[in-house]
Design brief:
The complex is a heterodimer of chains A (237) and B (315). Chain A contains eight helices and ten strands. By secondary structure, chain A is of the alpha/beta class. Chain A has a domain of 54 residues. In chain A, the strands form two sheets. In chain A, strands 6-7-8-3-9-10 form a six-stranded mixed beta sheet, with helices on both faces. Chain A has a four-stranded antiparallel beta sheet with strand order 2-1-4-5, covered by helices on one side. In chain A, a hairpin with a 2-residue loop joins strand 9 and strand 10. In chain A, helix 3 crosses helix 4 and helix 4 packs across helix 5. The termini of chain A are far apart. With 315 residues, chain B is mainly alpha-helical. Chain B folds into two domains: 178 residues, no CATH class; 82 residues, Alpha-Beta Plaits (2-Layer Sandwich). Chain B contains eleven helices and three strands, in the order H-H-E-H-E-H-H-E-H-H-H-H-H-H. Chain B has a three-stranded antiparallel beta sheet with strand order 1-3-2. In chain B, helix 1 crosses helix 9, helix 2 runs antiparallel to helix 7 and helix 2 crosses helix 9. The model of chain B has no long low-confidence stretch (mean pLDDT 83). The chains are: A alpha/beta (237), B mainly alpha (315). The interface between A and B is medium-sized, with 38 and 30 residues.
């Protein structure tokens, strides 16, 4: 089976500082993984490399068979159509309703999708995240957890093979955070690879999924699912 | 998450309709809405571009008129008027006429009577009043010599100025260096006009680039979201280019209309004088100039947007 994401000796430097240093990793379809490490370890850089927001200084980044490391700026959308993204601050358009936010993601990435189809699929996605009845609400009318659910619906509505999330529970209370994790688990169960960058020790420890640990730009540990490892450094970071 | 969605098959026409609707909505309607929303920050760009396009139109029309004038002057400079002395004998005039006509440097020789000279003078601005001020006709008869090369006019002048049939006090129309002086003045005017337009163009482009930059900055979240959800580059940049084109097009409409109106007003105000001072400027030419000004506005606006996008919008 082909990996959804593959890093081959990836290094990314900002000036003289190495944000990532010779990272090798592969993510498989249906796999939910956590990306952990102290602040400045390179987690966000790694996610940006997957989404082709930046290019590596050295090495290769493959996303669903596309060479993201050598992709021209005019073809970046080819990668981004294959990657759903969820942020800590949701990044919803305030002028649009929840349904319009989700439908927008469908139509701008594929202009052949009609309004009716976009609405139907957006409603499906919102129902899947438990917000089928809030489609007409604007972001400011929703709680933080609900806004994050809308962001997840937007990220998966086009059924991408990969979902990346950067601190998705950073602004949420613990109960809502667990609900979000259940949601990510469901998404992975449908075959989507999910990579979550987080500082939340409790969630990482209890879910016992694969854990990738970055420290000072190096992938120091790749702990398979079902094992518990040493995460003490997380508590102090 | 959502279940597997099975996409229906649309007929081709329906597909084209859907794509056109989406492109119109996300590119053109979005651009128009954002343009209206950002009108405050667009106003300086609109003003400077309108001024640039209006002045370009006026300077362009003036340049065309000056070029035509120069052509007329070039034609006139190669015509030497040999003024005939009052009461000169017909035989002397005929002899001179034959001598000139046989000269290989001369293309043609025509005789202008005093009455014809008066009529010609009355078509020149300012001279009708002079002609009417005196009871008698002050304009002499002349042999109008069309010289083949403008450089030979001086030699023909030397040849005829001491002839017995020629007026001794004012023998010919030859004015050494007059044509070169006109050329020098026209060249200076053209250079100054182009330099002024270049400066104004730089200002207009800079102001427009900055207004688009402000638009990008104010919508950076929206742009980032569009990029992250996989919108292709042309779709993210398109609305900004259309916004620039709206600004430039509007400036072009105003600039073109004012240019056209000014030319029409000039033509209506003094039709005889206007054709003397601005030869070749007709309603058709003025309309064409207005059209060019509008097209230039569209190009300038969208071009400035592209420059700004290249500088200020990351992929």
């Amino acid at each position: 089976m082909r990996s959804i994401v593959e890093f081959k000796g990836v290094t990314r430097a900002y000036g003289s500082r190495l944000a990532l240093d010779d990272v090798h990793l592969a993510l498989e379809p249906g796999e939910l993984s956590f990306l952990v490490g102290p602040s400045g370890a390179g987690k966000t850089t790694l996610l940006k490399l997957i989404n082709r927001e930046i290019r590596p200084t050295a090495g290769e980044v493959w996303v669903d068979g596309i060479a993201a490391h050598s992709l021209k700026a005019s073809h970046v959308a080819d990668v981004r159509k294959r990657v759903g993204v969820v942020f800590q601050d949701y990044k919803l358009l305030p002028r649009l309703t929840a349904m319009e936010n989700v439908a927008l993601a469908l139509q701008v990435s594929d202009l052949r999708i009609s309004d009716e189809e976009a609405s139907d699929r957006a409603l499906d996605a919102l129902e899947a995240v438990g917000l089928g009845d809030r489609g007409k609400a604007f972001p400011h009318q929703l709680s933080g957890g609900q806004q994050q659910r809308v962001a997840v619906a937007r990220a998966v509505v086009a059924q991408p093979p990969l979902l990346i999330a950067d601190e998705p529970t950073g602004n949420l209370d613990i109960d809502t955070s667990w609900e979000m994790m259940d949601l990510f688990g469901d998404i992975a169960a449908f075959g989507t690879a999910v990579l979550i960058a987080t500082h939340n020790v409790e969630i990482v420890r209890r879910l016992q999924r694969r854990v990738l640990t970055l420290v000072q730009g190096r992938l120091v540990r790749d702990q398979p699912a079902g094992r518990t490892g040493r995460l003490a450094w997380l508590a102090s970071s | 998450m959502a279940g597997v969605v099975v996409r229906g098959r649309f007929p081709r026409r329906r597909m084209v309709q859907v794509v056109a609707t989406n492109v119109f909505r996300y590119i053109f309607r979005g651009a128009a809405r954002n343009w209206l929303r950002n009108m405050g920050s667009t106003a300086p760009a609109l003003g400077s571009m309108t001024l640039l396009l209006f002045l370009s139109g006026v300077i362009g029309l003036s340049g065309l008129a000056l070029y035509n004038l120069e052509q007329v002057e070039a034609g006139q400079a190669s015509v030497l008027h040999v003024y005939i002395r009052d009461y000169a004998a017909s035989a002397d005039v005929d002899t001179l006429w034959d001598r000139l006509a046989q000269d290989p440097r001369v293309a043609s020789v025509t005789f202008t009577t005093r009455a014809e000279a008066l009529k010609r003078a009355q078509r020149i601005p300012g001279l009708p009043q002079l002609a009417d001020a005196t009871e008698s006709n002050p304009f002499p008869a002349s042999l109008d010599v069309q010289v083949k090369k403008i450089d030979d006019v001086a030699a023909i002048d030397v040849l005829v100025r001491n002839d017995i049939a020629v007026d001794a006090s004012y023998p010919t129309s030859y004015d050494q260096g007059a044509y070169q002086r006109i050329q020098a003045v026209l060249f200076g005017v053209a250079v100054a006009g182009l330099a002024f337009l270049a400066l104004l163009g730089f200002v207009a482009v800079t102001v427009t680039v900055n207004s688009i930059r402000a638009a990008i900055h104010s919508r950076r979240d929206e742009v980032a979201i569009m990029q992250l959800v996989g919108a292709p580059r042309w779709m993210v940049r398109g609305p900004f280019v259309v916004e620039g084109a709206i600004t430039g097009g509007l400036a072009g409409v105003v600039g073109g209309a004012v240019t056209f109106g000014l030319a029409m007003t000039g033509m209506a105000a003094g039709s005889s004088s206007f054709t003397q001072f601005a030869p070749g400027i007709t309603v058709t030419v003025a309309a064409l100039a207005a059209g060019i000004v509008f097209a230039a506005g569209l190009g300038l606006g969208s071009g400035s947007s592209l420059v700004s996008l290249r500088r200020h919008l990351e992929s």
